[in-house]
Design goal:
TIM Barrel; four-stranded parallel sheet; binds adenine; binds zinc ion
Length: about 350
Amino acid sequence: MISYPDYLQLLPKTELHCHFASTMSAQLFVELARKHGVTLPTEDPDVLFDFTDLRDFLVAFRYAHDVLRDPEDFERVAYEGVRSAVADGNLRYREYAVNPQYFFSRGLTYRQVIDPIVAGLRAAEADFGVGFGIVAAINRRESADSAIAMVEQVIAHAVPEVVAIGQDDLTPEDTEDPTRFAAAYELAARHGLKRTAHVAETPFATPDAVREALEVLGCERLDHGYRIVDDPAVVALARERDVVFTVTPVSTTICSRWTLDEGHRIRSMIDAGLRVAVSTDDAMFFRTDLGREYREGLAAMGVDAATAKQIALNGIDGAFCDEAQKARLRADFRAQFLALDALLA
Ligand code: ADE
Ligand code: ZN
């Protein structure tokens, strides 16, 4: 017999929303910083990863990219990140937001970033059976023209595993303003790339950002989206389009200060009939992992076993992989659900 928290931890999972740099372990981060002579304010994770809000976190997130320089750094982060997530949360498939513009400003090219990540993830797929996709994320701190140039790179150097574009960070005004990048999204769509975006993430964002991401940018999936519950018309729109929201309970609690309990916005999204899939977002920075997001995050919001299984399946439906891969994942998940249900006390 197993307890409910163990059941949640053992459920098979996909992860559709994690930032590549955030899949590093704190130990590897410190090791790579030493290797490249990057001075960290401290090596104590309790201080290094202590944030007051999203803006505060993003400062650390940006500089963390500086420790990723050589191909073997990227490959190691990719490979070890999969190995840990399999152990910590029964990961079966993952999509990574990679923000190439953070690396352009450090002198790396698109292929110098993407190729070693793909090599590391392919090696991990061979060893652990975890498939993957990459979302090339627009850096909202940069201009709309720079976003177009980044998408042009994605198109010019087509890599089959780079399946979508997204947008993250905040604008220089600390806003989301998703439509600022509408031309880049249009270009991506014309070349068959899928679309997602970080929107309506914190108390400073607006529910309208969800509408804009759906209606103007044409996003098939959205990251966060929590402010949606403040506008029933946008809830209706997202339900009509059957949008999957990639939500991140533990990390969002730190960035937003919303309490993780039965009144949390993610629970309200579920109760409103919206489809959510659970992810870590920034595991190293928020000292979380995929198992913890289910075990603590879902349990704190009072999510029952049937809903938790549906959330795991939403993570397949919302994935940007092909139908054959989704069918294999669903069969695998259903078999594991049967075994776990039989063990649940
Ligand atoms: N980059 C990494 N994590 C992010 C988040 N939660 N919001 C916006 N940009 C991010
Ligand atoms: Zn994110």
